[in-house]
Amino acid sequence: MSQHSDRIAPHGGILVNRIATLDQRQEFFDKAESLPRVQLSDRSISDLQMIAIGAFSPLKGFMVEADYRSVVKEMRLSNGLPWSIPITLSVSEAVADTLTEGALVRLDSPAGEFAGILELAEKYRYSKEEEALNVYRTDDLKHPGVQVVDQSGIVGFQTRNPIHRAHEYIQKCALETVDGLFLHPLVGTTKDDDIPADVRMRCYEILLDKYYPKDRVILAINPAAMRYAGPREAIFHALIRKNYGCTHFIVGRDHAGVGDYYGTFDAQHIFDEFEPSELGIVPMKFEHAFYCKVTEQMGTTKTSPSTPEQRVHLSGTKVREMLRAGKLPPPQFSRPEVAAELAKAMNIFSYEI
User: Is the dihedral of CA 184, 190, 194, 196 positive or negative?
Assistant: First the structure.
């Protein structure tokens, strides 16, 4: 949130709104049954929602070929505006053959429900290997983002962890220097082993009720799907938060990373590849926070007098591992009320507050 009363401009200058009006809804429903259909994946339905509400501004739809190729190679739209993740709608060859450029297409949710109408601008093919290597820096099929690219057809398209004490510490450090904090947990498609979105949201609500100032924090959902694209996704997430009105964006350790595909602070370094005015949002770069056994509080190497063996490093991965092993995260990892909520969700009943 800004320290000034003036609102910041969305990315590209205009906040896109692609939600159908009442008149358009009726028109679309009248046409829907006669149109060719494309059933969207979980990721694509999230992308459709983000386009519709303007969170992907300036995108007005899934990317055309010129924008797609420019984003993959240059991290910019074809008009030069920074953008780091391709947003495309992929279908099989068989489905593509039934679709006509310039015609309308009905979009259905993964459950088969009518979700929207698309005017098909163009159909084009792409190199899966090129996209994987540029966007994800690997073509390893063990990478969840690469898997999605590999399984897709031809083109025609933040925190995901339970909150822990390191998150809380970094967020409150940021809150010391700005007017307010916008907590925006990602609830779109994630990996199967991530904590479910509804559980993460309840944890945030519990935490905010007791441990955050009520008049300076806003909690809202981010319907985007995770790509696990590390550095590129950090830029992507920053631009989305800019479209929600944020002036600053917290970038911590291994943002949107998975496995060992990216360096610990690559997601911070990538911001240096753009002029600050191009992005229009200020990255707030934080060291890895840990629990210091000497001071008995959270800190970083900048503030803690501890030696490496006197530090307890926290991560969402460790919290998930503890829960799956039937162990409750200790107070150094999670607030007790949050740990209790996670335990209930994981069917661990030997907990106390």
Answer: positive
Phi, psi of 249 (to 5 degrees): -140, 125
Q: List pLDDT tens digits, range 87-135.
A: 999 998 899 999 999 999 999 999 999 999 999 999 999 889 999 999 9
d(CA 214, CA 34): 50
Residue 263 CA: distances (Å) to CA of 49, 84, 211, 340: 31, 18, 32, 33
Token reading at 343: 């335990």
**In a 3-state reduction of DSSP, which class is residue 151?**
helix
Catalytic residues: 160-161
Give which of 252, 163, 165 is closest to 201, Cα–Cα: 163
Q: Quote the strand ranges of the chain, DSSP E.
A: 37-39, 90-91, 104-108, 114-119, 154-155, 181-183, 217-219, 248-251, 282-285, 290-292, 297-299, 311-313
Weakly modelled stretches of the chain, pLDDT under 50: 1-5, 153, 155-160, 349-353
How many Å apart are CA 103 and CA 235, to the nearest integer?
33
Contacts of 28 (CB under 8 A, 6+ apart): 20, 116, 117
Cα angle vertex 216, ends 211, 219, to 5°?
A: 75
Half-sphere exposure of 137 (CA within 13 A, CB side): 16
Q: Give me Rg for the CA atoms of the chain.
A: 21
Q: Are 185 and 197 in contact (CB under 8 A)?
A: yes
CA distance 64 to 214: 43
Q: How far apart are the first and last CA of the chain?
A: 34
Look at residue 179 in the predicted model and tell me its pLDDT.
92
Q: From CA 298, how far away is CA 166, in angstroms rounded?
A: 7
Q: What are phi and psi of 14, to 5 degrees?
A: -130, 130
Asked whether the beta carbons of 191 and 228 are under 8 A apart, the reply is yes
